[in-house]
Amino acid sequence: QLQLVESGGGLAQPGGSLRLSCAASGVTLDYYDIGWFRQAPGKEREGVSCIRVTDGSAYYADSVKSRFTISRDNAKNTAYLQMNSLKPEDTAVYYCAAGVCLSLSDYESFGSWGQGTQVTVSW
Q1: How many other C-beta atoms are found inside a 10 Å radius of the C-beta of residue 110?
Q2: Which residues lie closer than 8 Å to 39 by C-beta, 6 or more apart?
Q3: Coil vs helix vs strand at 24
Q4: β-pairing verdict for 117-121 and 10-12
Q5: Going by DSSP bridges, is the β-strand pair 33-39/92-99 parallel, antiparallel, or unpaired?
Q6: Is 108 helix (H, G, I), strand (E, B) or coil?
Q7: In sequence order, what are the residues at sequence separation of 6 or more whose Cβ sits closer than 8 angstroms to the Cβ of residue 98?
Q8: DSSP 6-20
Q9: How far apart are CA 9 and CA 18, in angstroms?
Q10: For 34-72, how does the pLDDT look when each residue is reduced to its tens digit (9 = 90+)?
Q11: For the segment 67-115, what is each residue's pLDDT rounded down to a tens digit?
């Protein structure tokens, strides 16, 4: 059974950076696309980015494009989300998920989810 655990969240100042990690256990990530999603209080879940296992193609929400970078290290069975130039509106719980990257709004195609890590961007 695939289990995902996010880490790396915390408090960052506007303009700062954080790197989130998504460590997998139980099953290799070699067979899965990886997605990062976030949910802020009172808001709907939002797809942030996903990366395909077949060719490494990466996709980003317009709100994070050019600031966030998704990557994966299959040897470590871990995926990452590098977040630069953070803004207060990036504050949310961030989740990683494994499945099929069809679109950033197709949550149903991701069958395994982590518990989330809190990211807070504030002075």
Answers
A1: 22
A2: 45, 46, 92, 93, 95, 116
A3: strand
A4: parallel
A5: antiparallel
A6: helix
A7: 2, 4, 24, 29, 32, 33, 34, 35, 110, 111, 112
A8: EE--EEE-TT--EEE
A9: 7
A10: 999 999 999 999 999 999 999 999 999 999 999 999 999
A11: 999 999 989 999 999 999 999 999 999 999 999 999 888 889 999 999 9
Question: Nearest-5° angle of CA 74, CA 79, CA 82?
Answer: 135
- The mean of the pLDDT values for the chain is 95
Angstrom distances, CA of residue 93 to CA of 22, 30, 52: 13, 25, 22
Confidence at residue 20, expressed as pLDDT on a 0 to 100 scale:
98
Structure tokens that stand for 82 in this block: 């590098």
DSSP tag of 27:
S
Query: How long is the chain?
Result: 123
